[in-house]
Amino acid sequence: MQTIKRPVIQVSGVRKTYGQTVAVDEVSFEVEEGEIFGLIGPNGAGKTTTLECIEGLHTPDRGTISVLGLDPFRQVYKVQDRIGVQLQQAQLQKRIKVWEAVDLWASLYRKKAIDAEHLLQQLGLTDKRNAWFMNLSGGQKQRLFIALALINDPEVVFLDELTTGLDPQSRRAIWDLVRDIRDRGKTVFLTTHLMEEAERLCDRVAIIEHGRIIDIDKPERLIDRHCPERTVVLATDNTTAVAKGVLQG
Ligand SMILES: Nc1ncnc2c1ncn2[C@@H]1O[C@H](COP(=O)(O)OP(=O)(O)OP(=O)(O)O)[C@@H](O)[C@H]1O
């Protein structure tokens, strides 16, 4: 018997503009409990704007968003307790130590945080607990961001361009960690511009271009439809092959 999964994120007819710029328009999709859902598109397509509307950081001009049955903008505190959000590099001080960052983040939540030492161990950061943030490698920084996003034991985790700039080995290590998060029953929503990342990691993917969703499906079906030749080109960071067609237009 097939289990019916409940949608944990519902986005319906969302439009968001910045002055004259229409960042996203008529965006609709649902993310099911326990899946890794990817939003893929080229630079400027509207990925971050969509993500930030779902996180409650922006209010859409039009349309509705529900996260775990709550309005992420009006019920921001209730939602924040139940979601984990990946930070961007510039949001951590250079001279904060790994354990201090984890301790600080744990203190921001009303509910009891999960065991920080265990979390650092799971993410391979125990040896780095006394290191300054600025002295971590790119992959270690991203692992720390994942640790911070998991500190409140969230039901839904949001990751924005998590592996951009990482070498292939670090990227694969991060993918394993993201799969672990899903396998522990959490829902993951991520943005990427790498088709390879979407293909290897995501259960379902939405393609966004010029602010509009053009297709949603399992990655292998999207590749069949949108890049049947599977022509590959080098991505902007020169490390990963991406499928032409989806990202190159
Ligand atoms: N705060 C802002 N003010 C004005 N325009 C913005 C703002 N944020 C985003 N935009 C514009 O909205 C559009 C969508 O941007 P967004 O950052 O959502 O795209 P993206 O797909 O995440 O791009 P990237 O992959 O480069 O991060 C772009 O044209 C961008 O220039």
UniProtKB/TrEMBL annotation:
Keywords: ATP-binding, Cell membrane, Membrane, Nodulation, Nucleotide-binding, Translocase, Transport. It comes from the Bacteria. Residues 9-235 form the ABC transporter domain. It is found in: Cell membrane. One of its GO terms (cellular component) is plasma membrane. Coiled coil: none annotated. Signal peptide: none annotated. The keyword ATP-binding applies. Its main location: membrane. The keyword Membrane applies. SMART domains: AAA (SM00382). CDD domains: ABC_DR_subfamily_A. One of its GO terms (molecular function) is ATP hydrolysis activity. This is ABC-2 type transport system ATP-binding protein.
